[in-house]
Amino acid sequence: MRLLVTGGSGFIGSNFIRHMLASREDVSIVNLDKLTYAGNPQNLADMAARHGGARYHFIKGDICDACLLDDILHGKAVDAVINFAAETHVDRSIADSAPFLTTNVMGTHALLEAARKARVERFVHISTDEVYGALGPTGTFTETTPLAPNSPYSASKAGADMLCRAYFKTHGMPVVVTRCSNNYGPYQFPEKLIPLMILKARAGEPLPVYGDGLHVRDWIHVLDHCRGVELALMKGEPGEVYNFGSDNEKANLEVVRTILAILGKSEDLIRFVADRPGHDRRYAMGYEKAQARLGFTPLIGFADGLRETVRWYEDNAAWLSAVQTGAYREFMDSWYGERK
Ligand code: NAD
Ligand code: TYD
């Protein structure tokens, strides 16, 4: 099976490519990635060395580039498209939303259109639980929960989901949408909560917790998400949406305290800072449909997964310092400077 994976040099995409190349010998992958600040060829250096030229091929490019997409998909070169490419950080979407609309909405449209013309047999679009908005203290999201996005990031993801739906309904395209809760694990860019807190704690710097720290996220290990995407690719029904979660709701403060405990650092490093505007209070994912119809079951418990993730960042200190470029520090200084 020949796959076009977009955004494969980011966090989840690189874990997915590594998982697929390791577990399925019949799979070959073209990775199309623009290499934005979040895309890093180092994330797949091992795969390029082992499978490069044969089962793995990298193309630097933009999912908004219709001509490039036509070239890649020409002549039924690809059996399925899996679209991970996106601008993904909620805080950046608050600071500057334009790239989110360009890549997440217009880019998904360009990819759908190119895949439609090339008659690609399967199109898996990777979405997020954030399209459902925020929950109160009880209940979970299901696939029929109305979309109510609250950030420019989640609004742009919801826009892409609606385009996927329209291409299925209008053109009969075999589109499957997956929505997953917050991921953690190796290769996550240190702007997201867990790697950022590991980085800060290791450096003995203050750990910025938004608001009262009682916002809840439903954490899933990235490999469980990747296994879910694989199931959606192989067994998902066209036109259907599948939620993935891990029954693992945690308040941010609890996650931060656990990271400090694993690293043997003091809770005095915690700093409560001004809240993120429009901050969703709670996410919790109901994934019974994926369980019943795809056979999805998360396998990695949070205690083990988080300990291993902390160890990965300790063992990969060179990766962690290389991604902290000047542009990274500039964004972080400006964003957190405003939250003091
Ligand atoms: P990430 O920011 O780590 O990686 C995104 C990748 O997309 C990068 O490699 C980047 O270079 C690439 N990219 C960005 N714009 C592009 C463009 N125009 N053309 C080609 N490539 C482009 O993101 P991630 O955390 O790996 O998320 C991957 C997908 O999963 C996203 O669609 C995101 O919305 C979704 N998702 C993420 C989470 C999470 O917790 N991280 C949870 C649910 C869903
Ligand atoms: P994040 O990793 O940005 O994911 P998302 O906003 O997509 O859920 O944030 C996870 C939670 O952690 C969210 O409630 C915001 C909070 N948070 C902080 O308290 N401090 C921080 O510095 C960051 C980046 C996030």
Automatic annotation (TrEMBL):
What keyword terms does UniProt attach to this protein? Answer: Lyase, NAD
- Give me the segments passing through the membrane: none
GO MF terms here are: dTDP-glucose 4,6-dehydratase activity
Catalyses:
dTDP-alpha-D-glucose = dTDP-4-dehydro-6-deoxy-alpha-D-glucose + H2O
Name the Gene Ontology biological process terms.
nucleotide-sugar metabolic process
Q: Does the keyword NAD apply?
A: yes
Q: Where is the NAD(P)-binding domain?
A: 4-309
Q: Which cofactor does it need?
A: NAD(+)
Alphabetical list of Pfam families matching this protein: GDP_Man_Dehyd
Q: Does the keyword NAD belong to this entry?
A: yes
The EC designation for this entry is: 4.2.1.46
Origin: domain of life: Bacteria
Tell me the protein family, please: Belongs to the NAD(P)-dependent epimerase/dehydratase family. dTDP-glucose dehydratase subfamily.
Q: What is this protein called?
A: dTDP-glucose 4,6-dehydratase
Species source reads Alkalidesulfovibrio alkalitolerans DSM 16529
